[in-house]
Design brief:
The complex is a heterodimer of chains A (about 425) and B (about 130).
Chain A (H helix, E strand, L loop, with lengths): L2 H8 L36 E5 L4 E6 L2 H6 E9 L7 E4 L1 E3 L2 E6 L1 H4 L4 E11 L4 E5 L6 E6 L31 E2 L15 E2 L5 E2 L6 E14 L7 H6 L2 E4 L10 E2 L6 E18 L2 E12 L14 E10 L9 E12 L2 E11 L13 E26 L2 E15 L1 E13 L1
Parallel strand pairs in A: 1-9
Antiparallel strand pairs in A: 2-6, 3-4, 3-7, 4-10, 5-6, 7-8, 7-9, 11-12, 13-16, 13-23, 14-21, 15-20, 16-17, 17-18, 18-19, 19-21, 20-21, 21-22, 22-23
Chain B lengths: L1 H13 L4 H7 L12 E6 L7 E11 L4 E8 L6 H8 L6 E9 L1 H4 L3 E6 L4 H4 L4
Antiparallel strand pairs in B: 1-2, 1-5, 2-3, 3-4
The chains are: A mainly beta (about 425), B alpha+beta (about 130).
């Protein structure tokens, strides 16, 4: 390849057109989502030759409609033998964007230098491309001795100490962070972070959990055994002989009662929506702890459902293993059966509805609390890998309209994907 | 002054703070001598100086008199407290299933209502 042809490939990339006629054979996956290809470069001139220890100048001029929206123009290049791609940002110079792959990067290693160009708007979105990672421009770096006369006579590599990166006429600055708006703007296995830059971190955004939850509740027993309470408020009282109490009790100041509630297996899905925030849904099944259905009462529904917003305390906890403390707000649907006891005093002067009720007797009280609840909780997860963790947590639920206060400790495992 | 205190108690009750207040202020209803289901320990009913435990099944009110239908239990408590504990036993032996007496048999002797239990259907059917 002639020297003139090589320089065309470097500097003549500046000849621009929206048509992108030089990229007709571009792979299908490189087209479409990333905007139009703007750098016109005939197929036969996608390659060039370059001497060692010389910078590779790159200069482009964007079409007006692209230029108006462009905020950054990045050159992604990969040297021969280098597994990673490196990005440079071109400087704007009037209507052109200019820069160079530093000659020190070129060094004395011969082989193919690959590069392509992507134009980003102010929000990081890719709005135009020149070549692609799959089909990049090629610059073959050759030793001066194998170049044709005159081809290796370009400017020598500047001393980095005398010519800091970023100054006009010096090599372009290396781009550490590449702006993006979505994962489609990122390449090479990187994803778009919530900060708006491409990153290569194994942070799982979807988490599925399996756990066991034990409800522990407290509820008021004053007036619990009246017919009204048993028929309308989720209570059921049973005498020592097993019969449901349907007498006429005197209102007393019975103390609140508490006991274990249902035991549930809970499946959950949480979505990481920011570094420290997840939103999730939970579906539970009560397999133990169902009480008797009160007279005229609703049959126990073992299913439970909850939505949850969780805040995780720490810096980007999902990118690494270790402890993950968290707190959450939750609300949903659940029936909670609880068993307690109280002393019922019979009213001797009321018409008796049920025989055999002593003046005072201790009865077993079941409370079917629910069906809605709201609450808050806290927990601690231990991730032995960034994508696997075990957790313990406790939540406090206010249950309504059949009121109760329920603590819901639980434990389980969670997997990220 | 007392009325104001009672008002204060009820006000507190409505604010769910009335637990102690209500129990102090309100006396729960008690069984009377003619309340069906009441256990009455009567002194001298069988023998002078001894307590007999009877249970009121029903009453029949006349203009100037009242008849009591009673079950007489086969128990001889020595104190009213003992009579109360015996009355709590649902299987307390019965000496006489039904006896009809004027209430003066009870009211004119020392007596105390020691317990109460609502009558079962079978107990109610003892009354002719």
């Amino acid at each position: 390849m002639s020297h003139a042809k090589g320089m065309f490939a470097f500097a003549a990339l500046t000849t621009l057109s929206v048509s992108g006629a030089g990229h007709a054979e571009e792979p299908a996956e490189d087209r479409g989502a990333l905007g139009p290809e703007v750098l016109h470069n005939p197929t036969l001139e996608r390659t060039a030759e370059q001497g060692i220890l010389r910078a590779v100048p790159i200069s482009i001029e964007l079409p007006v409609d692209i230029a108006l929206r462009a905020r950054r123009v990045l050159v992604h290049y990969r040297l021969w033998g280098d597994p990673d791609w490196t990005a440079l940002e071109l400087r704007r110079n009037g209507a052109r964007y200019e820069g160079a792959i530093p000659c020190l990067e070129i060094s004395t290693v011969t082989g193919d230098l690959r590069y392509y160009i992507r134009v980003h708007d102010a929000e990081g979105r890719v709005i135009a491309t020149g070549a692609s990672r799959a089909r990049p421009y090629l610059v073959t770096i050759k030793h001066d001795t194998v170049l044709e006369p005159g081809e290796g006579s370009g400017a020598k590599c500047p001393d980095p100490a005398d010519c800091p990166a970023g100054l006009l006429g010096c090599p372009s600055e290396r781009v550490v962070e590449i702006a993006c708006q979505s994962d489609a703007d990122c390449e090479g296995g990187t994803t778009c972070s919530w900060r708006g830059f491409c990153e290569r971190i194994d942070r799982r955004k979807n988490w599925i959990s399996l756990g066991v939850q034990q409800d522990v509740g407290a509820f008021a027993t004053a007036g619990a055994c009246s017919l009204v309470s048993q028929e309308n408020e989720g209570y059921a009282c049973f005498r020592a002989d097993g019969a449901q109490y349907t007498g006429t009790p005197v209102q007393t100041n019975a103390k609140p009662s508490g006991s274990l509630g249902p035991t549930r297996v809970v499946v959950a899905f949480d979505r990481l929506i920011h570094y420290d925030t997840t939103l999730g849904l939970r579906l539970g099944w009560a397999f133990f702890g169902e009480g008797p259905t009160p007279r005229e009462g609703t049959t126990f529904v073992p299913f439970s459902f909850a939505a949850r917003a969780t805040h995780w305390f720490g810096d980007d906890l999902f990118a690494r293993s270790g402890l993950r403390p968290y707190a959450f707000l939750t609300g949903g649907y659940a029936m909670v059966d609880m068993k307690g006891s109280t002393v019922v005093r019979e009213n001797p002067l009321a018409p008796p509805y049920q025989g055999g009720n002593d003046l005072e007797q201790e009865v077993t009280v079941w409370k079917r609390a629910g069906d809605g609840f709201v609450g808050a909780g806290t927990g601690l997860a231990f991730a032995w890998e960034s994508r696997r963790a075990a957790f313990v947590e406790i939540a406090a639920h206010a249950v309504f309209p059949f009121g109760a206060f329920v603590l819901a400790p639980s434990a389980g495992i969670t997997l990220g994907f | 002054m007392r009325a104001k205190l009672q008002d204060l108690c009820f006000g507190l009750a409505s604010a769910a703070l009335a637990a102690a207040c209500a129990s102090d202020a309100l006396t729960p209803p008690e069984a009377h001598i003619d309340t069906p289901g009441a256990f009455v320990a009567v002194e001298g009913y069988d023998e002078p100086g001894e307590l007999t435990l009877v249970r009121i099944l029903d009453r029949l009110q006349f203009e100037e008199a009242r008849l009591l239908f009673m079950t007489v239990h086969d128990a001889r408590p020595e104190t009213y407290d003992e009579a109360r504990e015996l009355a709590k036993d649902h299987d307390l032996p019965i000496r006489e299933l039904i006896r009809i007496e004027p209430d003066t048999v009870v009211t004119q002797s020392p007596h105390q209502i020691v317990w109460f239990r609502t009558l079962t259907k079978q107990e109610q059917e003892r009354v002719p």
